[in-house]
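Researcher: I need the complex structure. Ligand is nickel (II) ion. Inputs:
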Amino acid sequence: MILPIVAYGDPVLKKRADDITPQDPSIVQLISDMYETMYQANGIGLAAPQIGKSIRLFITDASLLDDESVKDFKKVFINPTIEEEFGEEWSYEEGCLSIPGIRGEVSRYSKLRIRYFDERWNEHVEEYDGMPARIIQHEYDHIEGKLFIEYFSPLKKQLLKNKLANISKGIVDVSYKMKFPVKKK
Ligand code: NI
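Model: Output:
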């Protein structure tokens, strides 16, 4: 089932999400719905708060990117903790399904170590670098209640103010189903 993607301005995107009870059977269907939702929106990552659930879960599938290093990067991360970020910082232009039409450079560490459970509740500790690490960092920020635009300079934020207000009201050109927090006047 395709779920509406929550737009910028919804408080669920600003909340630190809660851990999922181990073995919770309802997440099997949720994960399947999140993949369906992400694919129809041409996303490469989707976090549960973006479909209105404040729980610590995100999914990835970066096969859409024309990049050998991520073509097999299809993973489910449940109750993750980034234990360490390290390496060089590098900048890349990011976007977000909750903030359509806005893109911008974000500087992040190139490497990280993450502890998480997969969809069968097996625990993993893994290291990632480059694009997979970046996708994890962006999605992990979502479950910490942080959005990529918060990394922008104060000037860039100021310039985007009206555009962001319009996104919250649904005044935005978008091809997938969204849920907007502010009523159009
Ligand atoms: Ni995002």
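Model: Summary of the prediction. The chain has one domain: 5-179.
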